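Re: that backbone. Tokens:
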């Protein structure tokens, strides 16, 4: 039987991991809802964004917050251009072609990061260093920052999609692009903007996760676990995605502790179990697209 301190500590680690997966999975879901494309390079967007924050904050001497802002703008512009110049040209192509293209993006970004910043892990100085004591349990401030960032971004996205004209137009476009186009909504521009928003969120995720994971070229593979969380929750549903990522994040540290033989693969075991029992995921979409 685990002492209560260890239960709290593992639970806290699990919640923070689930929030980290959720931050990355948000980008998967936003792009999928807008284009029905799964961007398998989104984990590499997060990795490259973290390195970009390092460059602006320490390489250019701007400090963490200005560096994060500059990196987010740069990555947002890159996401916008990737869609407008490349992804838009393969509309109507087979899903296999799109899959290969997004996987190729991942290899390109990983190789570019290695050539620019090297292949050894790097550390990023953030304001989140330190520890917080809760009773007899010591919690890392860096993990608290991940949880807080997830809450802030989810609230901001909820308000953006529910209250702003652009957000409502994006929702309309994601449900029926043809009808949105006939209503005068600039669908192509909004889709590119979705890619930009997803890249910005990935950059923020890379920055807040850097103290926990460090910056290295292979850190983008965390995106595969985030994708598993999105599938568990119900791909295409933002609340379901967050729920699935939180479920995987909480189960993972306890599974690694009690069953070390399956360390690192418990997320995929959970995904397989959920797909076997409920193939549509935990949360089903509340609307159907009209054709």
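Recovered sequence:
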């Amino acid at each position: 039987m685990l002492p209560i301190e260890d239960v709290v500590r593992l639970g806290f680690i699990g919640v923070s991991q689930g929030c980290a997966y959720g931050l990355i999975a948000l980008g998967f879901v936003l792009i999928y809802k807008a284009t029905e494309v799964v961007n398998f390079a989104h984990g590499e967007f997060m990795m490259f964004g973290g390195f970009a924050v390092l460059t602006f904050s320490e390489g250019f001497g701007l400090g963490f917050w200005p560096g994060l802002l500059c990196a987010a703008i740069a990555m947002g512009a890159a996401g916008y251009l990737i869609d407008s110049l490349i992804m838009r040209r393969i509309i109507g192509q087979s899903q296999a072609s799109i899959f290969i293209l997004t996987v190729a993006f991942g290899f390109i970004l990983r190789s570019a990061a290695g050539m620019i910043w090297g292949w050894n892990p790097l550390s990023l100085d953030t304001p989140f260093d330190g520890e917080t004591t809760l009773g007899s349990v010591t919690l890392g401030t860096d993990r608290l920052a991940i949880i807080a960032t997830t809450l802030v971004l989810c609230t901001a996205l909820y308000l953006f999609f529910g209250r702003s004209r652009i957000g409502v137009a994006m929702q309309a476009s994601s449900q029926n692009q043809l009808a949105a186009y006939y209503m005068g909504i600039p669908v192509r521009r909004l889709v590119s903007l979705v890619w930009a928003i997803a890249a910005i969120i990935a950059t923020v995720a890379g920055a807040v996760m850097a103290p926990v994971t460090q910056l290295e070229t292979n850190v983008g593979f965390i995106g595969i676990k985030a994708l598993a969380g999105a599938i568990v929750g119900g791909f295409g549903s933002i609340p379901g995605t967050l729920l699935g990522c939180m479920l995987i994040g909480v189960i993972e540290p306890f599974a690694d502790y009690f069953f070390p033989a399956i360390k690192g693969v418990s997320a995929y075991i959970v995904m397989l179990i959920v797909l076997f029992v409920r193939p549509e995921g935990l949360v089903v979409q509340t609307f159907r697209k009209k054709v």
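Residues 287-291 have pLDDT under 50 and may be disordered. The CA atoms of residues 52 and 119 lie 15 Å apart.
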